[in-house]
Write a structure and sequence with these properties.
Shape: globular
Strand order of the largest sheet: 3-2-1-4-5-6-12
CATH architecture of the largest domain: 3-Layer(aba) Sandwich
Radius of gyration: 22 Å
Largest sheet: 7 strands, mixed
Distance between the termini: 36 Å
CATH topology of the largest domain: Rossmann fold
Number of strands: 14
Length: 423
């Protein structure tokens, strides 16, 4: 049967288009749907359909499109955007394979590609603990020191700016498009420009604050913020916003943390400062009487901060795997694929400040090995070097999909239930 791949929205930049071209060269049919001007600049051509209807019309449109083109595989980036959620649900109902890309659970140098969902929707979630316990420890673990794909921040910013620019320019052409983010394209573009203009001063202030932090030699806990519009907050947590998360962490710290300890908040690197979290943190800390114990950083070397901290608090960011890698006590206040007994603190935030324990190193190694076996691919979305590796791995995974999650032995996936029986 001829494979027919339908692409929806992807990571900003040329990754999806390049992947589609490679699949075409392998003899597959490829089609892409654009929903706004940003999608269009990332991928335009004869193999593209521009959907300009309403969100209510999308379900019916998607169903007809799949029937007309004999779609066998759906490819998306992230599974929580409303248009993606509708398409995934319909695809699963009619037996279309669903492939979901996302940033790597372990970073840098890796991306995630899973069947049916990622993060809180990952098919690994229900069986993760069993897979880790049953990971084959008889074989020596192969080294995972993959070649670095290079710094991607400037490329991320470039592709984001280009995306928002064309989303704004072509707004009338795609006037029915409903944003999955809280700001209109023009607003987001202006926010990014303002953020770039203010970055030199913010870097200077962050450097000064970090120097004073280390000079004080006081113990500190690190809190990693996420984008307020991120699906990890809207879908995979019980918080309404990052502000709610910040307030809860500050109040718990004020009431339960050692009185001589500090709390350091680190802004997400791709947050364009739409919400003044620094001001919010300082005002709440002042009201709780702990203003002199709280620091807010716009910039900072995250691995260095993690390494020097007493522990890490986060909602469900992939920073968590970095914290576990550094052997730091870590607490997750949302849903995360690594929120497993033996890895993260399960006793609640109140006790974490004084009782949090480091992850079990062997268990973390088994966790990583399982991710590498199941869903991680070497490479990146944004640098040309990273895309070269990511495209190669993605092509193999898409052309030879695995339909069941299980233990991987010698490159073959043994379904989990069969593997358990064999033990």
């Amino acid at each position: 049967m001829e494979r027919s791949y339908l692409f929806l929205q992807g990571p900003h930049g040329p990754f999806f288009k390049q992947l589609g071209r490679r699949l075409t060269r392998k003899g597959a049919k490829v089609l892409r749907v654009n929903f706004n001007g940003g999608d269009w600049i990332d991928w335009f051509g004869s193999d593209v359909i521009n959907f300009t209807g309403t969100q209510k019309q999308w379900d019916r449109f998607f169903g007809k499109l799949c029937m007309k083109h004999g779609v066998t595989d759906l490819i998306v980036y992230g599974d929580c955007r409303t248009l993606h959620s509708i398409a995934i649900k319909r695809a699963q109902e009619v037996g279309i394979r669903v492939h979901v890309f996302e940033e790597g659970y372990i970073r840098p140098n890796w991306i995630t590609l899973e069947r049916d969902g990622v993060n809180g929707h990952s098919p690994l979630m229900p069986d993760q603990d069993a897979l880790i316990k049953l990971h084959d420890t008889e074989q020596e673990e192969k080294p995972r020191n993959a070649e670095k794909v290079g710094p991607a921040t400037r490329w991320v910013i470039f592709y984001c700016l280009r995306y928002y620019l064309f989303k704004t320019f072509l707004l009338k052409r795609f006037q029915n498009y409903i944003l999955h983010r809280p700001y209109r394209p023009a607003q987001e573009l202006l926010l990014w420009i303002s953020s770039l203009l203010h970055s030199p001063l913010q870097k200077y202030r962050s450097l000064r604050s970090k120097e004073e932090l280390y000079k004080s030699q006081k113990h500190f806990y690190l809190v990693c913020l996420q984008l307020d519009s991120d699906a990890q907050i809207r879908v995979h947590s019980n918080y309404l916003s990052m502000a709610n998360f910040i307030n809860e962490v500050l109040r718990s710290f004020a009431e339960h943390a050692p009185k001589d300890s500090l709390l350091v908040f680190k802004k997400h690197p791709l947050d364009p400062d739409a919400i003044a979290y620094g001001t919010l943190v300082r005002l709440e800390a002042y009201s709780l009487g702990i203003r002199d114990r709280v620091i807010f950083l716009h910039y900072g070397n995250l691995p260095e901060l993690i390494q020097n901290s007493e522990g890490v608090v986060l909602m469900n960011s992939t920073v968590g795997t970095s914290a576990l890698h550094h052997g730091k006590p870590t607490i997750v206040l949302g849903e995360a694929i690594y929120n497993i007994p033996g890895l993260t603190w399960q006793g609640g935030l109140e006790s974490f400040w004084t009782e949090g324990t480091p992850p079990e190193s062997l268990r973390f190694e088994a966790f990583k090995a399982n991710l590498f076996d199941q869903c991680l691919l070497h490479g990146g979305f944004y640098t040309s070097h990273g895309r070269r590796y990511a495209l190669e791995g993605s092509l193999q995974r898409l052309l030879h999909p695995v339909d069941k999650i299980g233990h991987v032995r010698n490159g073959t996936v043994i379904p989990l239930n069969d593997y358990i029986r064999s033990r």
